[in-house]
C-alpha cells in the first residue's frame, strides 16, 4: 500500500524545486499581496509547504493532491502570498486532469471554466471597475488553462496509445496471416511432392524387391526395365515440382499441370507396374464432351486423386481388377477408384497414410466430399461377388469457378 503512493522522481523534483523557490522568494521579501489577516512573514510558508506536499502526490493520488492544493491556494490568499504556491497549483491542476479518472478529466475543465466566469462576473459586480476583469483572467490562467492543457495532452496520449494498440493488432494479424500462408503453402507442396513421386518410388521399391528375391534373369531384366522407366518419370516429375517452386521466376516458366487427358498414360503405366502383382487397371470415363472444360484446380485434384489411388492399389491391393471411373453430373465431378481389398502375394511397399490425408485435403479445399474405405463387393455395381471385399475411394468435386478455399 505504501509503495503504491510513493512519489516518482518528477514529482519529487517539482516539489523540492517549488519549495526551494518559494523559500527564496520569502527570503527576498517578494510577495503577491499584503494587508491580509495573517500578515506574519512565516505564515506564507504554511500553504507553500502544503502545496509542495500536494506535488508529491500529483501522479499517484491526483484527487488527493488537488484537494490539498485547493485548500493550500485558498489559505495562501489570507497570507502575503507566494508566487511559487500559485505556480505549483497550476501543475497540480494539470496533473489532476492528466492522471486522474476519465470522469475527472471531463468535469474539471468544465468546473474551472464555470468558476472563472462566475468569479469574473462576481468581482465586476463587487468592485464595479474594469480592473476586476484582470482578477478573472488570473483565475482562468491558474485553473482553467492548466485543466484545458491536461485534456489536450491526455487526448493526445490516448490517441497515441490507441494507434499503438491498433498497430500491434495489425502486426499480430499480419503475422498470423503469414504463418497460415506459409503452412498452407508447405501443405500444398507436401501434397504435390507426395503425389508426384510416390507412384514411381512405389513401383521402384516393389520391382527392386522382386529382382532381389527372385533369382531369375528375365524377372530381373523386366524389373530393371520398370525401375528405369519409373526413375525417368520420377525425375521428370521432380523437375516439374522445381518448376512450381520457381513459378514466376525469370529463368523458369511455370510447368503445365497434369490433366485428366493424361489418365490413359497413367492407367497404362499402372498396368505395367502392377502386372507382376496381378493388377489389371481399366478406365471408365462417362463424361460428355459437351459438358465443357473443368477448372484447373478441379482437374488437377481429380488427377492427383486417381494417381494416389492407383499408387495405393499398387502397394496394397490384392490381385484383381482396378477400376477408375470418371463422371460428371451437373455441377459435380465424380472420381471413383475401386480395387480388391485383401492381402497380396509378393513384395509390397510400406505406406504412411499421407496419401489419404492429402486426397482429403484436396477435396476439402475445393468444397467437395471425400470417402475411402473397405466395403462388400456385392453392392450392386458388379465389383465382385458376395465374398469379396473392395477398397473404394470416392470424391465429389464441385466444378463451378470460385469454389476453391484460400
From TrEMBL:
Catalytic reactions on record: ATP + protein L-histidine = ADP + protein N-phospho-L-histidine
EC number: 2.7.13.3
Coiled-coil features, chain-numbered ranges: none
Keyword Cell cycle applies: no
Keywords: ATP-binding, Kinase, Membrane, Nucleotide-binding, Phosphoprotein, Transferase, Transmembrane, Transmembrane helix, Two-component regulatory system
GO molecular function (one): phosphorelay sensor kinase activity
Transmembrane segments: 12-32, 38-57, 108-127, 134-153
A Pfam cross-reference name: HisKA_3
Recorded GO CC terms: membrane
Start and end residues of each Signal transduction histidine kinase subgroup 3 dimerisation and phosphoacceptor domain: 185-248
Protein name: histidine kinase
Amino acid at each position: 500500500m505504501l509503495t503504491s503512493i510513493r512519489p516518482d522522481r518528477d514529482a519529487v523534483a517539482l516539489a523540492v524545486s517549488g519549495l526551494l523557490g518559494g523559500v527564496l522568494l520569502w527570503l527576498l521579501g517578494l510577495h503577491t499581496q499584503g494587508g491580509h489577516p495573517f500578515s506574519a512573514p512565516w505564515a506564507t510558508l504554511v500553504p507553500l509547504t502544503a502545496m509542495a506536499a500536494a506535488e508529491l502526490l500529483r501522479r499517484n493520488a491526483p484527487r488527493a493532491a488537488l484537494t490539498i492544493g485547493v485548500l493550500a491556494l485558498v489559505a495562501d490568499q489570507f497570507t502575503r502570498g507566494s508566487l511559487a504556491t500559485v505556480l505549483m497549483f497550476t501543475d497540480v491542476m494539470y496533473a489532476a486532469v492528466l492522471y486522474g479518472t476519465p470522469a475527472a478529466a471531463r468535469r474539471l475543465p468544465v468546473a474551472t471554466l464555470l468558476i472563472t466566469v462566475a468569479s469574473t462576473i462576481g468581482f465586476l459586480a463587487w468592485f464595479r471597475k474594469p480592473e476586476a476583469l484582470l482578477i478573472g483572467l488570473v483565475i482562468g490562467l491558474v485553473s482553467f488553462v492548466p485543466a484545458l492543457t491536461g485534456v489536450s495532452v491526455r487526448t493526445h496520449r490516448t490517441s497515441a496509445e490507441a494507434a499503438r494498440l491498433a498497430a500491434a493488432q495489425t502486426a499480430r494479424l499480419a503475422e498470423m496471416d503469414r504463418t497460415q500462408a506459409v503452412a498452407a503453402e508447405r501443405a500444398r507442396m507436401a501434397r504435390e511432392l507426395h503425389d508426384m513421386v510416390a507412384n514411381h518410388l512405389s513401383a521402384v521399391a516393389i520391382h527392386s524387391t522382386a529382382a532381389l528375391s527372385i533369382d531369375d534373369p528375365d524377372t530381373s531384366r523386366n524389373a530393371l526395365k520398370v525401375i528405369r522407366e519409373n526413375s525417368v518419370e520420377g525425375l521428370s516429375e521432380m523437375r516439374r515440382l522445381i518448376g512450381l517452386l520457381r513459378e514466376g521466376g525469370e529463368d523458369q516458366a511455370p510447368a503445365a499441370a497434369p490433366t485428366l487427358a493424361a489418365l490413359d498414360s497413367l492407367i497404362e503405366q499402372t498396368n505395367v507396374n502392377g502386372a507382376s502383382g496381378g493388377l489389371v487397371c481399366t478406365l471408365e470415363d462417362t463424361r460428355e464432351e459437351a459438358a465443357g472444360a473443368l477448372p484447373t484446380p478441379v482437374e488437377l485434384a481429380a488427377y492427383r486423386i486417381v494417381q494416389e489411388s492407383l499408387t495405393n492399389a499398387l502397394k496394397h491391393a490384392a490381385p484383381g481388377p482396378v477400376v477408375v471411373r470418371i463422371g460428371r453430373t451437373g455441377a459435380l465431378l465424380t472420381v471413383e477408384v475401386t480395387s480388391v481389398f485383401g492381402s497380396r502375394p509378393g513384395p509390397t511397399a510400406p505406406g504412411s497414410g499421407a496419401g489419404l490425408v492429402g486426397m482429403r485435403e484436396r477435396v476439402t479445399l475445393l468444397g467437395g466430399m471425400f470417402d475411402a474405405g473397405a466395403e462388400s463387393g456385392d453392392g450392386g455395381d458388379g465389383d465382385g461377388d458376395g465374398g469379396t471385399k473392395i477398397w473404394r475411394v470416392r470424391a465429389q468435386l464441385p466444378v463451378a469457378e470460385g469454389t476453391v478455399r484460400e
